[in-house]
Design goal:
five-stranded parallel beta sheet; ATP binding; nucleotide-binding; 12% strand; 2 domains; cytoplasm; Rossmann fold; alpha/beta
């Protein structure tokens, strides 16, 4: 299985790129969806988080209280790192299952849509890394518009992530998303013409 890692910073437009590729027929494993699945009510992942941070992060309905967990870990690097460590094995197991399912369906390549692909070291398992890149000034504006953050809040969230310059060092394909949606789609069409053939599904 040929593995392509798709990543990008917050408000970079990675989800837009991922959805475009999915519409074209590329098999995609969305790590955000997997991350939600592994902490659903009754899962070992949710139990592990509660054991670490206390039952107050679980609502009366047995659901993860994301705002509560976020308030605990956002400004604490050690706790944020610990959260990622706890969930990593559950997420990886589920992602591996999905990759095997795609292989069984006849796909020879799959896209791993993972926001923290490089930060977590998963890029080392990829054959290629595709980075959705955006300048911090544009990123700040889009984050404020999308989430209603103040400029200071937006910059704090951007600063908590790996710098774009560092991510570029580990990327084979850089998708520039500083322009319009039409500009982005033009780039993606060129990329698909060059790379789309790897996603051809073979009969099994």
């Amino acid at each position: 299985m040929y593995k392509i890692g798709l990543t990008g910073g917050i408000a970079s437009g990675k989800s837009t790129v991922s959805n475009w590729l999915r519409d074209k027929g590329a098999p995609i494993i969305d790590a955000d969806i997997v991350a939600r699945e592994v902490v659903e009510p009754g899962t070992p992942g949710l139990a592990a988080l509660a054991a670490e941070f206390g039952d107050e992060i679980i609502t009366q309905e047995g659901i993860l209280d994301r705002p509560k967990l976020g308030s605990i870990i956002f400004n604490d690097e050690a706790k944020r790192k610990r959260t990622n460590e706890i969930l990593h094995s559950y997420i990886k197991q589920r992602i591996d299952e999905l990759a095997h399912n795609f292989a069984d369906e006849g796909y020879k390549a799959v896209i791993y849509d993972i926001p923290l692909l490089i930060e977590t070291g998963w890029h080392k398992e990829m054959d290629e890394v595709w980075l959705v890149a955006i300048e911090e000034s544009v990123q700040t504006i889009r984050l404020c518009e999308r989430n209603g953050y103040t400029v200071e809040e937006a910059k704090a969230r951007i600063a908590s992530q790996m710098p774009l310059t560092e991510k570029r060092k580990h990327s084979q394909v850089v998708i520039d998303n500083n322009g319009t949606l039409a500009d982005l789609e033009t780039q993606l069409n060129h990329l698909w013409q060059a790379k789309g053939h790897v996603f051809t599904k073979e009969d099994v």
